[in-house]
Amino acid sequence: MAIQPYTGPFGRPELLHLLRRTLFGVSPADLDHFQGMSLNQVVNELLTFSTNVPPPIKAYTAPDGNNQPDPTLVDPDVPFGSTWVNTPSDPQAPIDPRGARIQSLAAWQMGLFVGQERNLREKMTLFWSNHMPTQAGAVFMPEGLYSLNQLLRDACLGNFRQLMYDVTLEPAMLIYLNGYLNIATAPDENYARELMELFTLGQGSGYTESDVQAAAQVLTGWTVQTTSGGQPIVPQTIFLPFLHAITDKQFSPFFNNTVIQGQTGINGGANELNALLDMIFAKEEVSLFICREIYRWFVHGEISAAAETDVIQPLAELFRNNAGAPDQMRIVMQALLTSDHFFTADLRGCMIKSPADLIVGTLRMFNVPMPDATQFEAQYRVWMDVYYLIAYCGQEIGNPPNVAGWPAYYQFPQYDDIWVDTATFPARNFSLQGIVYTGFSTPANLYQPQSQNLELKVDLVAFCEQLSNPGDPNQLLIDMVELYYGAPISQAVRDQLKTSILLLGQSQDYYWTFAYATYVADPNTQDMTAQLVPTILLWLTVDMLGAAETHIH
Q1: DSSP per residue over 308-364, as a string?
Q2: Fewer CB near the last or first residue (10 Å), C or N of the chain?
Q3: What is the gyration radius of the CA atoms in the chain, in angstroms?
C-alpha cells in the first residue's frame, strides 16, 4: 500500500507549514524564493544539496602574561584561522586544546544552522544526531566528534544500513558506548544493546537479552588508536583480531535462530558486523521503527492508529523496497513531505518548537546580521552565544541528556510538550527579548582587530520593508502574524495590537501610515511620531513574541 500523495491546494499556508518543519524558521526571503513553485518542486529543492561544507577552524586564543589574547599559546600547530580537524590534538600540551576545539565544533554547527541553505541538510543531520547521539563532554575527542558529525551530514539522506555500519565504527561512537573496551575476554554489551533498542529495532520489539550478549561478542575487537610511536594522531578505528571472540554466536528465535560464525583474521570483525546488520535489517521492525522516529521528528510526537496504518506502514514498506538504494532516506522523506497526511490541518501548528527551532528560526526570520568570514574570530564568538541561548532554553546541541537523545522525541505521552515548563518558558521568552532588544556584540579584547567591538542588532524597519505593505497597519499585522505565529489569532487581538501599539491609542490607520512612510523616506526626520517608528516596531514585536503562538509550528 502506497502512502497517499497530497493533491490539495499548495498555497502560502502549506508552504509555511512545509518550511517550518524542514528549515530552522521561515524568513520573508524564504517565502519569496519558493513562491509560485509546486509542492514537488519545493520538496525536490529541499532534498537536493551538497554536504561539502568548510570544516571548523581555530578561532580561539589563550591569555598571555598581560591577559592579552594570543593564538600561539593554545594549539600552536594549527595556524589561527585554519582548520584543526586533520591535526591531532595533544592532551599533554601546556594547554590541552581539546576543550577549545570542542567549543569550536559547537560554534561551527551553530554557524551552519544560522546560515543554513534552503534545504533539509541541517535539520536531517540534527535528526540523526538525536537518533544515534554522543555526548561531547563524555567523548572529549574533538576530531572524532567532527568526523561523526560530518558522516551524519554526508549520509543524512543516504542508505540507513550503510549509515549504521559506518556509525558503529566511528571513533566517537566507539568511545561513547564503550565499543573500544569490548574484547573477547570481557565483552561489553553497551553498544550492542543500544544498537537494537535505540538505533534499529526499538524496545520491546522481540529481541532477547541473549541476543544482546551474542551481538556484543560479534562486536569485539574494535578499538580507537590515538597515538603512534608515542605521538598523538588523529583518532582512527582499528580492528585487533586477537581481541575478537572467534566463537560462533547463537541468536534467539526472534532472529530465526541465526548463527553468526566466528571468524578470524583482519577481516573477521567487518564480516561479522555485516552479518549482524544483515540479520537485524531483515526484520520488518527496523523499517517501522525508523519511520516512526522520522514521523515524531518532522510531523507529530503522538502516532495515532490511523497514522500508523496510513503513513508508518506504507513508509516502512517503501523503506524496505529501497533497502539497497544509496538514497533510501531521500526516497522516504520525499514520500512523507509530499503526503496528504503531512498537510492535514490538525498537524499544522501542533508541535512546540525545539529550542534550536525557536532561537535559530528567530535569527533567520529577522535576518540578524552576523560577522563575515574576514571576522572569523567574531563569527565563532557570536555563534557560541547562539549555542548558549539554545542550551539556556533546554537543548544543549552535541550534549543530549543521554543515549536516547532528547525526551521530546520519545517520552510518551508528553513528547514535544517537554520543551516547555516553568523553567524553560521564561528562558525562551527572555532569549527572544534579548535577540530583539540587544542582539549580539563582541568585546574589545579579541585578537583580530576587525572582530572587536561589533554590534549586531535586529533592524525591524528593514524586516518590515520585506513585507507586502508595511505602511498599512492591518496588512502589517497580517504578515507579522503569518511569520511570527504557528497558529492564527482572532481579529479582536489584531485590532487590539494595532490600536494600542501601532496607532498609539489613536483610531485612524493613517497615523501609522504617515509615520511609517515619513520615517522610511528619511530616518533622520524631525517628525516626532515618525521618529518613534523603530521603537513602536520593537514594542509590537516584543509583545507578539511573548505570546504562546510564537512557540509552536
Answers
A1: IIIIIHHHHHHHHHTTT-TTHHHHHHHHHHTBTGGG-GGGTT-SBPPHHHHHHHHHH
A2: N
A3: 26
- The count of other CB atoms within 10 Å of the CB of residue 529 is 17
CA–CA dist 77, 100 (Å, integer): 14
Q: Do residues 82 and 58 lie in contact, with contact meaning Cβ atoms separated by under 8 Å?
A: yes
| Residues contacting residue 306 through CB under 8 Å, at least 6 positions apart | none
For residue 387, the SS3 value is helix
- Written as nine digits, the cell of 374 is 574576514
- How many whole angstroms separate alpha carbon 76 and alpha carbon 92? 13
Contacts of 537 (CB under 8 A, 6+ apart): 460, 461, 464
113: CB partners within 8 A, 6+ apart: 24, 122, 356, 360, 386
- 3-class secondary structure per residue, 484-544: HCCCCCCHHHHHHHHHHHHCCCCCCCHHHHHHHHHHHHCCCCCCHHHHCHHHHHHHHHHHH
pLDDT digits (tens, 9 = 90+) for 355-414: 999 999 999 999 999 999 999 999 999 999 999 999 999 999 999 999 999 999 999 999
- Nearest Cα to Cα of residue 389 among 425, 360, 409, 353: 360
Helices 284-298 and 121-131, packing angle to 10 deg: 120
Interatomic CA distance for residues 121 and 126, integer angstroms: 9
- Helix, strand, coil percentages, rounded to 5, for the chain: 55, 5, 40
454/316 Cα distance (integer angstroms): 50
* Segment 148-164, tens digit of pLDDT: 999 999 999 999 999 99
Which of 286, 301, 274, 290 is CA-nearest to residue 329? Answer: 290
pTM score above 0.85 = yes
C-alpha cell, 309: 496504518
Distance separating alpha carbons of residues 40 and 29, to the nearest angstrom = 20
CA dist 331 and 320 (Å) reads 11
Q: How far apart are CA 497 and CA 542, in angstroms?
A: 12
Q: Distance between CA atoms of 170 and 224, rounded to whole angstroms? A: 9
What three-state secondary structure class fits 438?
Answer: coil
